[in-house]
Amino acid sequence: MNGNQSNRTRKGLGPGLPFSFWYVLVAIGFLLVLQNVLFARPFEQLPYSDFKTALRQDRIEDIQISVHTIRGTLRSSPSDKLPPVRFMAVRVDDPELVQELEKHHVKYTGQYDSDVVKTLLSWIIPLVFLFIVWGFLSRRLGPGQGVMNFGKSRARIYAERETGVTFTDVAGADEAKEELQEIIDFLRYPQKYSALGGRIPKGVLLVGPPGTGKTLLARAVAGEASVPFFSLSGSDFVEMFVGVGAARVRDLFKQAQEKAPCIVFIDELDAVGKARGINPMQQNDEREQTLNQLLAEMDGFDPRKGVIILGATNRPEILDPALLRAGRFDRQVVVGRPDLQGRLDILRLHAKKVRLGADVDLQIIAARTPGMVGSDLANVINEAALLAARYGKDAVMMDELDKAIDRIMAGPEKKSRVMAPEEKRRVAYHESGHALVAESLPHADPVRKVTIIPHGVAALGYTQQLPTQDRYLYTKDELLDRMTVMLGGRAAEEVVFHDVSTGAQDDLQRVGEMARRMITELGMSEHLGAYAVEQARQPMFLDGGYQSPKHYSEAMARRIDHEAQTMVERMYQRAHQILETHRDKLEALAQYLLQHEVIDQASLGLLLGDLRSGPQPKLLG
Fold this sequence. Notes:
Helices cover about 45% and strands about 10% of the residues. It has about 625 residues and is of the alpha/beta class. A 6-stranded mixed β-sheet has the order 6-8-9-10-7-11, with helices on both faces. It has a 5-stranded mixed β-sheet with strand order 1-4-3-2-5, with helices on one face. The two termini are about 60 Å apart.
């Protein structure tokens, strides 16, 4: 928890001592020992033969006879002069016992063996004690942790000084911080807004890809405003028992209004706020009841009390529209991927914790990491520090940062994965084909690095391309060039070996998906024109898509398949033509990779020259 202790830790069993089943086992063991000590029978065990001997010696004062035992008082011998002791003997079938007792004038009585008292003393009292201990531990655990506290909220409460995060700890999200500054001002100076009749938004939804710092921003808002901070996940509301989630929502808002002004942060809001009816085949009454209660509570509380609801999600497209209307989550703040300056600020923030070498230029590292989010950049710095420590260096150098980027983008190097010479030669030509085609096309991103060292789980080599600037839109020509580059590896294998391998499997899948999207969604079809035939519910901030029913006929599907196949074939022939034209460059690059295994951008430029200024192959009709 980064040095912060939650309310449960402060008021519960103490740090580092979580509740577990071992407490129950210890309590049961204690009760067994207690039973043996307190309820042990204070009788001296006496064999029946010794009992008969003492009876004949007139040493028995009185006895109580039961079905199974004989208890009584035994006098010591005249020479011992010891006080009488209580004894117990196991009763045997002895018809003459009563006559002998009367003969020696022993007072005897009968006793009925009842298990009620023994059961009461042996089990009921220990069980009562066990329940008392259980209740005590449940109360010490805090809200939402005991067995009978299903309806309690599981929100962790942080005091203002415990979040430990302010806006100075957040980099690369300047626009989001500006949007949230208004919330901080309201929590600090609510009279400034109430005097003008203004109403602060009840809820603010933070949307963006995973790892961009949405949770960090929410904690920074609480730290800046110096107010209590309730933090929980959307999945904490949902249980297998119907009605538990709604009860937890009610309890959460009750606690929040008692602590007002405060901030309630619900992470992964889509877990509880998914649109109702999005999948009619799967009904979930518990989730819908929880969502209905959340909507009702957001309508019911008074924003003037200073309770601000912050939500975070990377799937805003599946949220229920009722959550996003005015009066609930009034405002949406996009926490997107950082740009070049944002990545530089994030790298500088995390680099304060490590010792950097003199050759480190974070501006270059920021330029080499387009598309990475804050968590990725923090991982780059951490991986570089681990590599420097592994190599026994005193500081993190530029070489470790480069290797850290490669580890995150392609996985760690697998130098122990030995390839056969012929397989290594095929991989070298495959990657050379990608690089040569990329360096020949005008709209393709420049190649920064090519390697035939295996990385990650399945990559036998890779070609790393980096855009010259952050991109948000792509033209049709740029997408076609991308497809051609992806097909360059397979085309190189066919040019050199007159055969192809399974190494292009991922390339072919990506090319096919890109071609279909260009035709069906992006209006880049030559035959369909500016017409989108698919309305797939695509995620805004996640990779991949959802399976959606087709809204077109089988005849249209055949046209789409034919055009996508034709587009891919044209780009493949284009890559094939480029490689045939520059066959000498292909051979030189492959031989360089076979000898050195890695080539960087500078060496690649010297080896290939400026291929983009030459004549470009024409697209086949």
